[in-house]
Write a structure and sequence with these properties.
704 residues; 27 helices; five-stranded mixed sheet; 9 strands; mainly alpha; Neurolysin, domain 3; 4 domains; 53% helix
Length: 704
């Protein structure tokens, strides 16, 4: 399960040329001009920061004209002149937005962040102008009321249903006074959620642990020390070692550093982001966000924000989410308590005169793992050279779906580290373009995510190529040593590429429905099922090669991976579920007030009995998923999807992990369909039954 998994931009785009009669200044703007790039990818090499704001204003203007044309159509509303016309409108704006906001996440600067602050309320106002346009809604409603007589195809019917639902969920049925209230709420939320994420990026970049004594490096592997030395050079601390709270630096430090006081310092810096009562503090922002969300939910007729969000998901109600989480929480907490006892025994055995604390967990769990399984995570890293792992994800996709991959060097990139690939089907049909951006930098937010620069759709029967991006924060190469991944990072890459496949293999007619535009609690299914192949012996033998000798990973190590697969699963599951509970608790509040943010978080953890040796994966003040990303009242979706995943992969395991019949069904019945049908219908078509929770509990070793 990828904690920092975020799918950042789900807007669909077409890169289109502008009207020939527009002002000369606009025609010179590469975001507005006719494209002259291979595969019509964004012209990153020509875009200047100063191009964005004029492009947004022109794109909004063009979209307004397209909406006005639908409004003013003298013909009676039809599926084609209203619903299809809406799906096709705003493609230039989607293009500009997807490029800008993806760059704001992956390669930002102060200018871009300032533009984001200016543009976000403009976009909020523009979206509200469309969704609250009564003349437009009446046309949509008229078509919707005829749906049973229109003889629509499955995807057409779904587009009509989703379009109507999106209008009603956006306030189309409100009176004018309430529409004005909703506009103000949406505008304020757009600014607050942006500011929350900017604060966390700045906080992350502001912290560094500078070590100038070799003895303070005790326990750290040489690869971690080398990476810290390179970071020191980059930060102007040459001759020293610098560690940051970016995950590729933080987790190895917590896992191997023999200096308990320094582990505490690093861990504390990480879990107190946004909670220092200064200009970057997020507590006031959280209060405003949760209260505004509650206001919005009530305006739209829902009891809580969670009720509003979940009504559009597979789960439907908060009660169903809590019920699922509790089924997993109870055995997971029991396992975590047992793990804590084992770690304390290890501390006592090492003559440690102290009680286990959260900053000790990684360190002593690694020692217990080594004692129980004769297995050190660092043994694996030499076999997971980044380029080899890329080969592994491509090998898996080839054997499942017949896909072919070729690195290309002739297209513009937004950063020199980015790699680009052409993806073709078995019959050599070009399916899409894949960007991959692997390493941390100050201009990139933390975590890992998939996004799109252009979604797939069909224009006059022709499939428009998707342009997909995969972004991570993996360990950088150091000196003559390549980027060597931990097994968790390997799994992350398989996970994110599962999202990419969902975008690349899409075969939808309508932009609105294509690719990853599915229910939030289903979108993780394609990514999480793809993780499973990372640890399969026959796949490991293909890609896990020692970076120096080329030796294939020995079966002895593979067996250790398999034997230890249930190790620490209590901690992993509890740490994640605690965050999912926190998310749901914030979004099931029923009254507005000024909350003590830290006290609220503590009460939420006390209520579920979280043990003091474990800290919730994301404390409120840096919970980007729910306060800056798209996962509010939705962080549970990873466990919801994992129920489907465990059930589905058990199906593969019973019949062969590369069973072509099952793989073809997964592709044709799920990955190609986007949101063209209700997701449980798609799943049951693939699996032949509804999912069972038992395989998930067994997979995590939480039941015997």
């Amino acid at each position: 399960m990828k904690k920092s998994l975020i799918i950042l931009a789900m807007t669909g785009i077409t890169l289109v040329s502008c009207n020939s009669n527009k002002p000369k200044q606009e025609s010179q703007n590469p975001l507005l001009a006719e494209l002259n790039t291979p595969y019509n990818v964004p012209p990153f090499d020509k875009i200047k920061t100063s191009d964005y704001l004029p492009a947004f204003k022109e794109a909004i203007k063009q979209h307004e004209g397209e909406i006005q044309a639908i409004d003013d159509n003298k013909e009676s509303p039809t599926f084609k002149n209203t619903i299809e016309a809406l799906d096709k409108s705003g493609r230039l704006l989607n293009n500009v937005s997807s490029i800008f906001f993806n760059i704001n996440s992956a390669n930002t600067n102060e200018q871009i962040q300032k533009i984001a602050e200016e543009v976000s309320p403009l976009l909020s106002k523009h979206r509200d102008n469309i969704s609250l346009d009564d003349k437009l809604f009446q046309r949509v409603k008229s078509v919707f009321e005829q749906k049973d007589t229109l003889k629509l195809g499955t995807e057409q019917a779904r587009l009509l249903e989703e379009t109507y639902k999106n209008f009603t969920r956006s306030g189309a049925n409100l009176n004018n006074a309430d529409k004005d209230k909703l506009r103000k709420i949406n505008e304020e939320l757009s600014i607050l959620t942006l500011k929350f994420g900017q604060n966390i990026l700045t906080e992350t970049n502001n912290f560094k642990l500078v070590i100038d004594k070799k003895e303070d490096l005790a326990g750290l592997p040489q690869s971690v020390i080398d990476a810290a030395a390179e970071t020191a050079t980059a930060t102007g601390d040459s001759g020293k070692w610098v560690f940051t709270i970016q995950k590729p630096s933080l987790i190895p430090f917590l896992t191997y550093s023999g200096k308990r006081d320094l582990r505490k310092k690093m861990f504390t810096a990480y879990i107190t982001k946004g909670d220092h009562n200064d200009s970057l503090d997020n507590k006031a922002i959280i209060n405003k966000i949760v209260n505004l969300r509650l206001q919005k939910a009530k305006l739209l007729g829902y009891k809580t924000w969670a009720n509003f969000i979940l009504d559009n998901n597979m789960a439907k109600t908060p009660e169903k989410v809590y019920a699922l989480m509790y089924k997993v929480w109870k055995p997971a907490l029991k396992a975590a308590k047992q793990e804590a006892k084992e770690l304390q025994k290890m501390i006592d055995k090492k003559s440690g005169d102290f009680q286990l604390k959260p900053w000790d967990w990684w360190y002593y769990s690694e020692k217990v793992r080594k004692a129980k399984y004769d297995f050190d995570e660092e043994q694996l890293r030499p076999y997971f050279k980044l380029e080899n792992v890329i080969h592994g994800i491509f090998y898996t996709a080839n054997h499942l779906y017949g896909l072919k991959f070729k690195e290309i060097h002739n297209i513009p990139k937004y950063h020199e580290d980015v790699k680009t690939f052409e993806i073709r089907d078995a019959n050599d049909t070009l399916l899409g373009i894949q960007y991959m951006d692997f390493y941390p930098r100050a201009s990139k937010r933390g975590g890992a995510w998939m996004t799109s620069y252009r979604k797939e759709y069909k224009e006059n029967g022709k499939r428009i190529l998707p342009v997909i991006s995969l972004v991570t924060n993996f360990t950088k190469p150091t000196g003559d040593k390549p980027s060597l991944l931990s097994f968790d990072e390997v799994t992350t890459l398989f996970h994110e590429f599962g999202h990419s496949l969902h975008g690349l293999l899409s075969q939808c007619t309508y932009n609105t429905l294509s690719g990853t535009a599915v229910a939030r609690d289903f979108v993780e299914f394609p990514s999480q099922i793809n993780e499973n192949w990372a640890s399969q012996p026959e796949v490991l033998k293909e890609y896990a090669k020692h970076y120096k000798t080329g030796e294939t990973i020995p079966m002895e190590l593979i067996e250790k991976i398999i034997n230890s697969s249930h190790f620490n699963q209590g901690f992993v599951t509890v740490e994640y579920l605690a965050a999912a509970y926190l998310d749901m608790d914030w979004h099931t509040i029923i009254r507005e007030k000024e909350y003590d943010i830290d006290a609220f978080g503590k009460a939420a953890m006390d209520k579920i009995g979280l043990i003091p040796q474990i800290v919730v994966r994301y404390r409120s003040t840096y919970f980007n998923h729910i306060f800056s990303g798209g996962y509010s009242a939705g962080y549970y979706s990873y466990i919801w999807a994992d129920v489907l995943v465990a059930d589905a992969f058990a199906y593969f395991k019973q019949n062969g992990i590369f069973n072509q019949k099952i793989a073809t069904s997964l592709r044709k019945d799920i990955l190609e369909h986007g949101n063209s049908e209700e997701q449980m219908i798609l799943y049951k078509r693939f699996r032949g039954q509804e999912p069972d929770i038992k395989p998930l509990l067994e997979h995590r070793g939480l039941v015997k």
